[in-house]
Amino acid sequence: MSTPAIPLATAPTVPIAPTASATPAASPVIGSAPAAGERQRLVLDTNVCLDLFVFRDPRWNALLQALQDGSVQAYTREDCRNEWLAVLDYPHLPLTPADKPAICAEFDRLLHCLPLAEVNTFGLPLCTDKDDQKFLELALQCRAHVLVSKDKAVLKLARKTLRKGMFSIVPPQHWRLYAFPPPAQD
After folding, report:
1. Are residues 16 and 181 in contact, defined by beta-carbon separation less than 8 angstroms?
2. Cβ 1 vs Cβ 81: under 8 Å
3. Using CA atoms, how far apart are residues 94 and 40, in angstroms rounded to an integer?
4. Residue 144 in contact with residue 178, Cβ under 8 Å?
5. Bridge-partner residues for 114, per DSSP?
6. pTM score
């Protein structure tokens, strides 16, 4: 399912300053939060998608439920989706040819696929794993609040993207903590 790119003017972000004790690995802080009534925008890397759709890792049930009930909006892009499809063909995965269509259909139903587009990546940190740079670019393109990743090279960039007010990068075990920011205090 294709969804047009989100115009930058309609995707406001509200920076939240990290606390002094916050570190990306131990206590991630969301870099931008959804505006009132807005769904959180997520980017999920391929390993997180494998856990959700292939391995059905119960630790990420809250994330899967949020995708299914529409309380969050996840995005992919043509190049990210192509990587996903290629990975599903890896022989070590517990998939039969009969499993793949249902898994692909669920992925396509729950993640909105954006076209590959030129994105102004000025200021976007470079990932040491060039294959993962596309997830950072996608997060920038869709104005994601959070990039959920298990990749160490991506997670190492969390402080940089926060400092630049772009988006948070968190491992899936921390997603729930920062999925829905607390209401503003009066």
Report:
1. yes
2. no
3. 31
4. no
5. 77
6. 0.78
Domain ranges of the chain: 39-116+123-178
Rounded alpha-carbon distances, angstroms, from residue 28 to 20, 21, 104, 171, 183:
12, 10, 30, 9, 18
**Terminal Cα distance for the chain, rounded:** 41
Give me the amino acid identity at 129. D
Exposure of 124 in the CB half-sphere (CA atoms within 13 A): 21
CB 170 within 8 A of CB 56: no
CATH T-level topology, domain 39-116+123-178: Rossmann fold (3.40.50)
The token duo for 110 is 């729950």
CB atoms within 10 A of CB 117: 11
Contact criterion met (CB below 8 Å) for 8 and 143? yes
Q: What is the rounded distance in angstroms from the CA atom of residue 19 to the CA atom of residue 1?
A: 38
pLDDT tens string 98-132: 999 999 999 999 999 999 888 888 889 999 999 99
